[in-house]
Design goal:
heterodimer; A: mainly alpha; about 75% helix; B: alpha+beta; five-stranded mixed β-sheet; 3 helices
């Protein structure tokens, strides 16, 4: 997805996600809905950040630990660790 | 299992070298470095969190996001995120991640910056939720 497509998806999903919470659905329900609709963790994070009025970083943590995205949790943690490790190595290069 | 891991890392090392040569040798098509440069420029222009997708040769498409700002010769990436697009489960090894960081650093250097600072929130380890940050001196890139 391009930047515009991601943005369009986020805009499209904000209202129904807010409505679900207002209707008494749980955050897990909303996250399952977002995953089914967008298939994108990034889109889910950006929507959650908007509807929960939280920082993108906090929304990332919430989505990452959710039941909805449990299937790729380990994959993403491995990538995250590699990313931190490689940035750290690069920062120590002289 | 150990042999499998060695093969995976070896394969990844070869991909890493392929990716490097793809950019450094001026391969055709939009290279990773130019995609990252494009991302950094768009994020700087936006002045807010920007999410986009990049192609990593042999590895597929990845969502990348950050809030990017500049201060003199320093470019700062906040809330950095990087995920395989969608639900793909193809593994990405250390070599590919190294190539990504290498090309991100070169992209920032090509844009005229001398320092790259990266901030993000940990999702793993002993302190999930805590911030981490590193500073990369781009003048030492060779």
């Amino acid at each position: 997805m391009s930047n515009n497509q991601i943005q369009n998806q986020v805009e499209r999903l904000i209202r129904p996600s807010r409505q679900m919470l207002q209707d008494g659905k749980s955050l897990d329900d909303v996250l399952e809905y977002l995953k089914a609709e967008s298939k994108s963790k990034m889109v889910s994070i950006l929507v959650i950040s908007k509807i929960m009025d939280s920082s993108v970083g906090d929304a990332k943590l919430l989505v990452h630990k959710s039941k909805a995205w449990k299937d790729v949790k380990q994959r993403d943690e491995e990538i995250h660790e590699k990313l931190i490790s490689e940035i750290e190595k690069m920062s120590k290069k002289k | 299992m150990v042999v499998g891991a060695v093969y995976r890392e070896l394969g990844d090392h070869l991909v890493s070298n392929y990716i490097k040569s793809f950019f450094e040798g001026g391969g055709s098509g939009a290279g990773l470095r130019s995609q990252l440069k494009n991302f950094l420029q768009k994020a700087l222009n936006k002045g807010d969190f920007l999410a986009d997708t990049i192609d990593i040769p042999q590895k597929g498409r990845f969502d990348i996001g950050a809030r990017v700002s500049r201060s003199g010769g320093k470019i700062t990436l906040n809330d950095v995120m990087f995920f395989p697009e969608g639900e793909q489960t193809r593994p990405i090894g250390t070599g590919s991640v190294r190539a990504l960081i290498d090309q991100l650093s070169w992209a920032a250097k090509d844009m005229g910056f001398d320092t790259l600072e990266v901030f993000s929130k940990r999702v793993t380890g002993a302190y999930p939720g805590h911030n981490w940050n590193f500073v990369i001196d781009l003048t030492t890139l060779k």
